[in-house]
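pls ignore typos typing on phone
zinc ion + seq
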Amino acid sequence: MNIEKHIEAIIRTIDPDAHDLQRTPARVSDAFEELYSGYKHDPKTRANVLYNSEMDEMVILKNIPFESNCEHHLMPMIGEVSVGYLPCGRIIGLSKLARIVDCYAHRMQLQERFTMEVAQAINSIIEPKGVAVHVRAEHFCLTHRGVKKAGTHCVTRYFLGKIKENPELRKEFLEEINA
Ligand SMILES: [Zn+2]
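k done
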């Protein structure tokens, strides 16, 4: 990612006399490389290990921490994702679920789209009967600048398949993640 010279221009614009910042553009470039590494992969096409299973109750992985950056301000959004799916003959390694979350988090994001992308990826990889995703995040563009509403969190949810159709399954998921 060749953004060093752009970062240097931003630093000079903020403080034309800035010194002791010689290595900062390179460090910021490295940080961006890491923060936006999610474009290198498409979780839906990556080889994923699935296991046959007779499990027919919801599998839930809750409170997965994530860090992303909003595409409106390039400021951090930090929170937790909970995902659930209703298997249909196949289950997936739990760490793979966390990797799907990480991949989409390492992009410039909107929380709403992030929530849907995670759900749709789980749906296309496992082909379960239903998927549920719940995201709760603090947006620094809301809490550290502008209206500065400290302590505010944004909550988004997205459901697919049987979990979308069946209010009882949605309730089961939401009760479990709030327990
Ligand atoms: Zn923002």
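The longest helix spans residues 111-126. The pocket of zinc ion is lined by residues 70, 72-73, 75, 139, 141 (CB under 6 Å). more later
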